[in-house]
Structures are given as structure tokens and as C-alpha cells.
């Protein structure tokens, strides 16, 4: 199973987009509670306490199960060569960009400044 670059980008963007969800939800709930007249300051709801406890338990189970699931998947992807060095990727892209710029500059100089081109420099004569 080879991962394509575009799917890694999509996963990264999805993670970045979802990273703000907990803070947004927390702000929304606190704003709604502040606007509600029946909420007494300093008093905590029993439902909120239960949800917080369940969230802590879920986080604890996630931390316990992560080494068994994440590490083998990470090693499998690394063995397949799914992760390339960022420096290599940048160097390859920079080389392609440099080659394209050199080719474009050469075409422009041949078209406008080379006397052997003929039709390209007829206006310059």
C-alpha cells in the first residue's frame, strides 16, 4: 500500500482543520452558559462532571492503545518509504524550478537576441 502525496496533504489539512474544534466547542458552551440566566456562577453541573470523567477515561485508553497501534503502522510506512526527507523534497523541487527558469530564459534570449534565429529579431534590425 503506497501512500500518495496528495492523500498526506489532505490528512494534514483535515487534522489542522479539526484541531480547532475542541477550543471552539468549549468557547461556544461557555458563551451559552454565560448567557443563560439559570446558571449559578461557581456551581458545576453533574452532567459536565460525568462528561469530563468520560473524556479523561477515553484519553487514558487512547494513550494506552497508541503504542500497540501507532508504532507498528508508523514502522510499516517508514519501511515502505512513505516518508521522504523534507530536504530532499525541497531540493528536487528547487532543481525542477531552476531548470524551468533556465529553459525559459534561454528561449527568451534565443528568440530576441540570437542573430541566427532570423524571424525573432527582424524587428530589432
Characterise this structure.
- The chain is elongated, with a radius of gyration of 29 Å.
- The relative contact order is 0.05.
- It has helices at residues 5-18, 21-35, 46-80, 86-113.
- It has a domain at 85-117.
- The protein has four helices and no strands.
- With 125 residues, the chain is mostly helical.
- 74% of the residues lie in helices and 0% in strands.
Q: Which key terms come to mind for this protein?
A:
single chain, 125 residues, 4 helices, 74% helix, elongated
Specify the helix fraction band: over 70%
Let me know the average pLDDT: 78
Biggest beta-sheet profile: none
Provide the gyration radius in Å: 29 Å
Strand content: under 5%
SS-based structural class? mainly alpha
Low-confidence stretches: none
With helices defined by DSSP (H or I, 4 residues minimum), what is the helix count? 4
Query: Quick one: how many beta strands?
Result: 0
Q: What's the SSE pattern?
A: HHHH
Distance between the termini: 61 Å
Shape: elongated
